[in-house]
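Field log, afternoon session.

UNIT: design team B
ACTIVITY: writing a sequence onto a fixed backbone
BACKBONE:
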C-alpha cells in the first residue's frame, strides 16, 4: 500500500472540502497497519486536515478486517474514537 499516494488523496480531498464552505465532509484513507508512518498520517488527517473519520474496505486482497495484522491499527482507532466507515467492496 502506497502511503504517499494515500497522503496525496487525503490532502486533495481536504482542499475540496475546504472549498465547500461547510456543505461537505470527508473521510480519510490510511493503510490499515499500525506502523508509525500510518499512525502519523491518520493523526494528520484528523487533526490537521479536519477529515471526520476513516474509510475501510471489508478486505484487502485475501485478508478481511478481523485479521490479526489489522488489530493494532483498529485498537488505535478505537482508542482515539475515530469514526470508521466500512465499505462493502
Amino acid at each position: 500500500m502506497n502511503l504517499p499516494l494515500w497522503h496525496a488523496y487525503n490532502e486533495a480531498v481536504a482542499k475540496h472540502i475546504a472549498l465547500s464552505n461547510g456543505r461537505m465532509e470527508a473521510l480519510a484513507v490510511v493503510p490499515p497497519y499500525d506502523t508509525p508512518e500510518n499512525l502519523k498520517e491518520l493523526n494528520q488527517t484528523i487533526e490537521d486536515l479536519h477529515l471526520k473519520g476513516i474509510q475501510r474496505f471489508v478486505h484487502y486482497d485475501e485478508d478481511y478486517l478481523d485479521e490479526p495484522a489489522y488489530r493494532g491499527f483498529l485498537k488505535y482507532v478505537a482508542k482515539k474514537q475515530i469514526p470508521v466507515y466500512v465499505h462493502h467492496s
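LOG NOTE: The radius of gyration is 13 Å.
NEXT ACTIVITY: expression trials, pending approval
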